[in-house]
Automatic annotation (TrEMBL):
<keyword id="KW-0238">DNA-binding</keyword>
<feature type="domain" description="HTH lysR-type">
    <location>
        <begin position="19"/>
        <end position="76"/>
    </location>
</feature>
<dbReference type="InterPro" id="IPR058163">
    <property type="entry name" value="LysR-type_TF_proteobact-type"/>
</dbReference>
<dbReference type="InterPro" id="IPR005119">
    <property type="entry name" value="LysR_subst-bd"/>
</dbReference>
<keyword id="KW-0805">Transcription regulation</keyword>
<dbReference type="InterPro" id="IPR000847">
    <property type="entry name" value="LysR_HTH_N"/>
</dbReference>
<keyword id="KW-0804">Transcription</keyword>
<dbReference type="InterPro" id="IPR036388">
    <property type="entry name" value="WH-like_DNA-bd_sf"/>
</dbReference>
<comment type="similarity">
    <text>Belongs to the LysR transcriptional regulatory family.</text>
</comment>
<dbReference type="GO" id="GO:0003677">
    <property type="term" value="F:DNA binding"/>
</dbReference>
<protein>
    <submittedName>
        <fullName>DNA-binding transcriptional LysR family regulator</fullName>
    </submittedName>
</protein>
<dbReference type="InterPro" id="IPR036390">
    <property type="entry name" value="WH_DNA-bd_sf"/>
</dbReference>
<dbReference type="Pfam" id="PF00126">
    <property type="entry name" value="HTH_1"/>
</dbReference>
<dbReference type="Pfam" id="PF03466">
    <property type="entry name" value="LysR_substrate"/>
</dbReference>
Amino acid sequence: MNRNNEPDRAGATRDERLPPVEAVVIFTRVAETGSFTAAARSMGLPLATVSKRVAELEEHLGVTLIARTTRRSSLTEPGKRFLTHGQLIVDALQRAADEAAQAVAEPSGRLRLTMSTVLVEAGLGRLIARFVAANPKLRCEIDVSDRYVDLVAEGYDLAIRVGRLKDSTLIARKIGSTEASMFAAPSLVAERGLPSDPKALDAYPLIGEQISPSDTQQWLLHHATQKPAKIEFKPRMSANNVRAIAEAIEAGLGIGRLPTFVGRRMAEHGLAVPVLPEWAGPGLDISLVYAAHRGMLPGVRLLIDQLSREAGSLLPGHAALAAR
């Protein structure tokens, strides 16, 4: 039945009754941009075409998707529900187009990504450099920074992040994890010695890992054959940044926890000493973070796939994941 409750033409098959794809794409863009004019401008279409396609979609579905007045347009309840599915359809179409393009097109254009200094030190920078070298038409910009980067607002294609991720509408893909092990400066060990077990940590200054109104923090330490140990302490210093914790350890301010590969590298250079190496904290996830697939350059998708396959193996003490 159509909007006027008249029977559809006889013999129509199910495929013929599916909503027209172009109309779904245009409706989705109107809903995302907030107006017919903005959607027409972004898609390079005449305003009349955009309005007509949305009206045809509403006619096909038999419901009003967008309530229009002389001043504004807004989604109806059916429109909100349809938008959820429309966005999935558009994303799937874009992914299909990207994958088809990858089969015949060499990755090109500019790729912008951001990651922390500790990941560069772990060797991810070399992995990305090899990827760029293998794709000569691709240009890459890497922001090496420990600050939080807003991918959408600042125009980045990809972020590689360590630890707990903020709630976000972005897509996160875990590519591995690393233990959090304890380390201290050689000067602190020379002065106080090494603790014999987790309970002995009470006699040492400890470095916290979070900024909190509370005076106390907790570490949960795991052992291969013993029960977990919970350590409550008032930190001598706290920082929510791996590099800052590493520098506090190096300065002798206390025992701190670091991703194992970071602490081991410091130990190799004589800057830190492992503390109770058989005890480790919960693993820190290493994740790729990026916006929706829609509009993603083939080069970005290829880099995501390569990092998913190879990044975990670069991290000592890691637990790598198979590429998914």
